[in-house]
Amino acid sequence: MLGAALSAANNLLFVALASAGHQVVLMYLKVFADDLAAGLASAAFVAFLSSLTSVSFTAVQYAIFSSLMKLLPKVFLGGHFGSIVDGIGYSGFFIFTALIGVRVLPLVRLAGRRLDLAEQAH
Predict the structure, then answer these.
(1) 22 secondary structure, DSSP code
(2) Can you give the pLDDT at residue 31?
(3) What is the pTM of this model?
(4) What percentage of the chain has pLDDT greater than the value 90?
């Protein structure tokens, strides 16, 4: 949950950076915050994917899950981000992505609850 929340909030630092112009200290803060959020979120996601795999088919299942995770943003949406930025600007785009991140938080909570219930059943 922390990684997901930091990732969403982290996009607001892009808004500050886009508004502030050439601010090296703010850019360093953004890079630090981005790396911290990405590290926490990535570690949690790897643990989540690992919990979904069967011991007998770990490598294949993990490869499929991690590929599917990148399918929507990279393949279907990635090419449209430039058009969105052209339409609403960088600040608007990063506010939009932060709002998407906020919408993900209930899904993270739901996934956590479902995993807890599945562990209790075993």
Answers:
(1) S
(2) 92
(3) 0.71
(4) 25
Q: Name residue, tokens 């499929």.
A: 64
Q: Which domain holds residue 105?
A: 2-121
* CA separation for the pair 4, 88 (Å, rounded): 24
- Here the tokens at position 43 are 């570690």
- For 67-118, how does the pLDDT look when each residue is reduced to its tens digit (9 = 90+)? 887 777 777 777 788 888 999 998 999 999 899 889 988 988 888 887 776 6
The token pair that represents 33 in the structure block: 């915050």
Buried b or exposed e, range 79-98, using 16+ CB within 10 angstroms: eeeeeeeeeeeebebbbebb
Q: What is the DSSP string of 54-83?
A: -GGGHHHHHHHHHHHHHIIIIIIIGGGHHH
Total domains present in the chain: 1
Token pair 């609850």 is found at 113
Give first-to-last CA distance, the chain, whole Å. 24
Cβ neighbors of 1 (< 8 A, separation 6 or more) are: 105, 108, 109, 112
